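EI: anyone free to look at a 167-residue chain?
SC: sure, send it
EI:
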Amino acid sequence: TGGRRQMYLRLNPDAGYALGLKVMETRVVCAVTNFEAQVLHYSEYPLNRDLNDAVFVRSLAAIVDQTIGSSGLAKPAFFGLGIGLAGVIDPHEGIVQYSPFLGLRSLPLARLLQEQLGMPVAIENDVNTLALTEHLFGAGRHHRNFIVVTVGRGVGMGMVLQGQLYQ
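SC: here you go
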């Protein structure tokens, strides 16, 4: 009772954009989304596996720049980049501890890309990103506890426990 009448609010879906990369053995998939998680632009790029760390980081930065250019959106409109890749990842420090498919060890990928791109960068194990996606948008949306298992060249598992991604 009292006060102003209720008013529904929602975020402007085009107030900012995010970039997502999935780095695989021989290719990189890149998507641009708005605040409603709608995919606005999607592209794939080949990736040479035989790269040293510096060339690998420059290659990813070039893919991001090319994707931003292809999207038709201005770079300042992007609020960050998220990267998923196979391996042992320290998401809090932004370090790829070990990625067997890519031959990476102790690479501070988030910091190096952030320096090159001038935007926040987050990295996570690719199966954990899949589990989080299922929790937010997919089959796990209405469940507080579930696991996601992937089987391919390797086997991976991500868990959501008590509504939180287990890391």
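EI: The two ends are 44 Å apart (CA to CA).
SC: 👍
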